Amino acid sequence: MSKGxxxxxxxxxxxxxxxxxxxxxxxxxxxxxxNFYNSERDVVERIEKILGRPVLFEETDxxxxxxxxxxxxxxxxIVGAVHFAACKAVGESIEKPLMYYRNxxxxxxxxxxxxxxxxxxANIVFSSSCTVYGQPDKEHxxxxxxxxxxxxxxxxxxxxxxAEEILSDxxxxxxxxxxxxxxxxxxxxxxxxxxxGELPRGVPQNLVPFVTQTAAGIRDxxxxxxxxxNTPDGSCIRDxxxxxxxxxxxxxxxxxxxxxxxxxAEDEPTYTEAAKTGRWFIYNLGTxxxxxxxxxxxxxxxxxxxxxxxxxxxxxxxxxxQVWADPKKAELELGWKADTPIEDVLRSAWNWQKTLK
Length: 357
Ligand code: NAD
Ligand code: WQD
What we know:
Blueprint: E1 5-9, H1 14-25, E2 29-34, H2 43-51, E3 56-59, H3 65-74, E4 78-83, H4 90-95, H5 97-117, E5 122-129, H6 155-173, E6 177-184, E7 186-188, H7 207-215, E8 222-225, E9 237-238, E10 240-242, H8 243-258, H9 272-277, E11 280-285, E12 291-292, H10 293-304, E13 310-313, H11 328-334, H12 342-356
Parallel strand pairs: 1-2, 1-4, 2-3, 4-5, 5-6, 6-11, 7-10, 8-13
Antiparallel strand pairs: 9-12
Helix pairs in contact: 1-2, 1-8, 3-5, 5-6, 7-12, 10-12
The structure holds nicotinamide-adenine-dinucleotide (NAD) and UDP-4-deoxy-4-formamido-beta-L-arabinopyranose.
């Protein structure tokens, strides 16, 4: 018997597709929604191949209230939503701020409105980002959920900060609503089946897709952006988290929201009014370990045995020097931990890349 029907927006995307598989594996029925703005149609068939059964999918633009509303009319038994649908490229958001605000904010407003109006069980898991912390002060590393949020420099980052504000205000206003905001660090890797993974359009901006494309000969060499940072080897430090581990955290978050639990306000130090309701949860999702760019590059070479030409390049504008998560709260309250060894994660990214050649 199904544990309940979950709406998954942005379901064909990188993190959405992996979460789809894990929610189904955990016994949930999933309705996937996507407009394929940044994903391929065949992802849905690939999910079916992994699961060995047909799935429910609605091609819909979440920023359009009419078509998004039809999904809710058709699936009145939805008991919760995981909201991934958004545009996510930091650089592009600076060039196209209105597109980012329209898509990321309007889609979220529509989701909240529809969940509340239809008197559904208004349980929402939201894809937030470590970008809300900006460059943390050294004393806040590793970053816990109560670290100060810094004003984001990009419309993308601001859209995540605004989204958290909108959700926390909604929790205060609508007593049936429960929200879990998950702040992801740097998701990498691909499903062990190599049937789904990250599909960057054009030249990848993120490190791991650039690494795998370089290893595959699609790019000449990798530029390591800066080796003069105040870090042990001079390159930037991040918390790289395996996308399948990350997907499993969403299952735990939905389990928690559906379990009628309430949080203790003192555990939710930000957005106090929302915290007082006991229906507002924030978790950092990372491994708790920082890895430098050079460590990741060398780790990739070691894990795959593949040559990876790279050179040191100037710093990338706007880059944060170092950031990694304190994931203790997620471990304690969700019973979740990211524990896949980095070598396995990097091999999974390479195995996925080889299918794209
Ligand atoms: P992605 O682009 O691979 O997936 C997003 C999916 O949403 C795509 O399939 C896209 O077609 C779909 N989409 C976008 N707008 C839509 C709309 N209006 N209606 C329906 N579908 C729409 O991105 P991802 O890496 O899987 O990220 C998923 C979520 O996680 C995003 O909200 C992103 O901001 C957040 N996030 C991602 C990262 C990361 O590094 N990948 C880190 C932190 C947070
Ligand atoms: C990682 C490190 C680069 C490419 C971005 C978003 C953030 C979040 C996660 C969504 C940095 C270095 C990269 C390359 C390199 N997304 N690098 N050569 O910058 O941590 O964060 O994705 O919420 O909002 O900004 O990730 O993968 O771009 O970079 O040396 O060709 O790799 O300088 O130190 P980042 P990234």
